[in-house]
Amino acid sequence: MQDFIITQKNNIWWGMFPRLTQAGFGNACSCRLHGESDMVPGTLNLALHVGDEVELVLQNRRLFAQALGLDASKFTTCEQVHGSNVAVVDEALVGAGATTLADTIKDTDALVTNLANVPLLLFFADCVPLLFADERQGVCAVAHAGWRGTVAQIGRKTVEAMQQSFRSRPEDIVAAIGPSIGQCCYEVDDFVRGKAAGYEQFFAPRAENPGKYLLDLWGYNRQVLLDAGLKAENILTASVCTQHNHEMFCSYRAEQGKTGRMGVCLYRMSAGKNA
């Protein structure tokens, strides 16, 4: 089974991890094709915070939800501030940020829930999406890991939140590393490397550019998850660089900041699927 595949319905395209689907967790990493955006015309921007016209973004969300067979009013979002705070989504938070930034979950970069058919939706354009699924406990989570979230170990903190709130065991969790900027394209400096004590092996020095490094965010986050107790065979990787594939996925670097955001959606299917 391939870790990651591209599929479509109604000409709305997304990437998905079949193993998560087989475990009872619907998942989708939206492609930028065939949307209603005005900021980058004809693209499927799903984020409200990037300067796109609100009603067009909401229409894109409806198109995405319809293709996935979801209720767009239940999309549950968070503010994403490049931090490492994790929020547990209960019934009162379902639909936070679905239609307005005013009621999104503030100061948060990861969401966890055990509710069925509640689609967690986070936004990305080069940063790393981390998806988590615990079939045994019926729990799922999505985390936003840019370099700041990665060095703050948001992956580990999300696993800990699943343990503390829902008694998940790390060895039962399947995690997936979604489309994001690859080491091939992600140059950082000594400041970033200095924040990554113990994980320096994921910074490849650039001989032609002293003080600069190519950062492997996929490998770094994988190691954080291994250190958190996940099994190596339970960590999937899309292996899709968004900068190299910016015609398919949003890339902040490739498009010099003028881009929408990929939506990464994860939800536990109806309770019977995991009974």
Write down the CATH class.
Answer: Alpha Beta
Q: Helix and strand string, N-terminal first?
A: EEHEHEEEEEHHEEHEEHEE
The end-to-end distance, rounded to whole angstroms, is 24 Å
CATH topology: CNF1/YfiH-like putative cysteine hydrolases
CATH architecture term: 4-Layer Sandwich
Question: What percent of the residues sit in helical stretches (DSSP H or I)?
Answer: 10-25%
Counted beta strands: 14
Strand content: 15-25%
**Structural class, judged by helices and strands?**
alpha+beta
InterPro entries: Cu_polyphenol_OxRdtase, Cu_polyphenol_OxRdtase_sf, Cytotoxic_necrot_fac-like_cat
Protein name: Purine nucleoside phosphorylase
Keywords: Hydrolase, Metal-binding, Transferase, Zinc
Organism: Phascolarctobacterium succinatutens
Q: Which structural traits does this protein have?
A:
275 residues, alpha+beta, CNF1/YfiH-like putative cysteine hydrolases, 6-stranded mixed beta sheet, 5-stranded antiparallel beta sheet
Short structural summary:
The chain is an alpha+beta fold and 275 residues long. Helix content is 19%, strand content 24%.
